[in-house]
């Protein structure tokens, strides 16, 4: 080992030869070292799986709405308003008290539909004999009702 007095008499190329190569530091791992990070990662994964399961369960519970919408879309242009009304009633049987829904007809049925969804143009009586409602508009109203009605317990 040399001290600084020995280095004073050396030329530059000799000084360069005395330099030891720099060793690289150890690689820093990207994986968190503390157990708290592992617990946090597991908690986030569990919450994500639970959120996905809840979303899928809600979709499963609302499948009758999607089937009713598809059935309304499949109706031809000369279908009667009563056909749309019966599809709405069958769908309502899944979410409301069957005894309450089954007895509703005429203005009582229309009032029930209008009371449970506020995002659509209100329905009028399906049973009007003097004027035939526009079927395309009625289909749109029914689809909006099926998409947005609320179940009030």
Descriptors for this entry?
153 residues, mainly alpha, 8 helices, rod-shaped
Mind explaining what this structure looks like?
It is a single chain. 61% of the residues lie in helices and 0% in strands. It has 153 residues and is an all-alpha fold. α4 (63-74) runs antiparallel to α8 (135-148). The protein starts with a helix and ends in a 5-residue tail after the last helix.
Secondary structure layout plus pairing:
Elements: H1 4-7, H2 12-18, H3 35-61, H4 63-74, H5 81-95, H6 98-102, H7 106-115, H8 135-148
Q: What's the helix-strand series?
A: HHHHHHHH
Structure annotation, total helices: 8
Q: What is the CA–CA distance across the termini?
A: 89 Å
Shape: rod-shaped
Can you summarize the main beta sheet? none
Proportion of residues in β-strands: under 5%
Structural class: mainly alpha
Helix content: 55-70%
Instruction: Give the low-pLDDT segments.
Output: none
